[in-house]
Design brief:
3-stranded antiparallel sheet; alpha/beta; binds magnesium ion; globular; binds guanosine-5'-monophosphate; 4 helices; 9 strands
């Protein structure tokens, strides 16, 4: 059941432009930056941020991908478990300031798994988190450094994120399941 539109295409574009500026301000430029997107929709968002950073600074930042999928573990009662399926980080993350990018931040378990996977690859000088939507309900001490929009939700609600690259349009909606 549709409840509300949260972001249209122009609002999403402005949020990502703002986040790109915030990343550059916080890190004093694009030197030593890298952007890593989390499958599925974090990847196009990471690529958009890298493109905006390149436009603003004239510096190409390396980009990578992590495929972390939540699956239900039938043997335990602990609900969804994040599993690392694929790591595509084709650059040395040592001494890099890595910006992790995802579409929606919820319990924080996916990001915890992403941090483990990144740290296994080397020693970045910093890891920061950018998300399009923070819907609350954290179960771990994890927060985003850059947020497109904070959206308090109930557990029965779900945020639909559609992106041009995968869905043909940029829109964020709130649905009741
Ligand atoms: P967490 O691990 O923080 O519980 O959940 C985050 C992951 O699950 C993200 O990769 C995100 O894509 C997905 N996710 C959790 N809740 C939602 C939601 O309401 N909408 C969408 N689109 N993804 C969600
Ligand atoms: Mg996801």
């Amino acid at each position: 059941n549709f409840k509300a539109q949260i972001l249209d295409a122009a609002e999403m574009r402005r949020a990502l432009t703002r986040i790109a500026h915030e990343i550059l301000e916080r890190n004093k430029g694009a030197e030593n930056l890298a952007v890593v997107g989390i499958h599925t929709r974090g990847i196009p968002l990471a690529e958009r941020l890298a493109k905006k950073i390149a436009e603003l600074e004239g510096l190409q930042v390396p980009t990578g991908k992590l495929d972390i999928t939540l699956y239900r573990d039938d043997l335990s009662e602990v609900g969804l478990q994040p599993v690392i399926r694929r790591t595509e980080v084709p650059f040395d993350i040592a001494r890099k300031r890595v910006i992790l990018v995802d579409d929606v931040l919820f319990t924080g378990r996916t990001i915890r798994a992403a941090l483990d996977a990144l740290i296994d690859l080397g020693r970045p000088s910093a890891i920061q988190l950018a998300v399009l939507i923070d819907r609350g309900h954290r179960e771990l001490p994890i927060r985003a450094d850059y947020v497109g929009k904070n959206l308090p939700t109930s557990r029965g609600e779900v945020v639909k994120v559609k992106l041009e690259e995968s869905d043909g349009q940029d829109i964020v909606e709130l649905w009741e399941i």
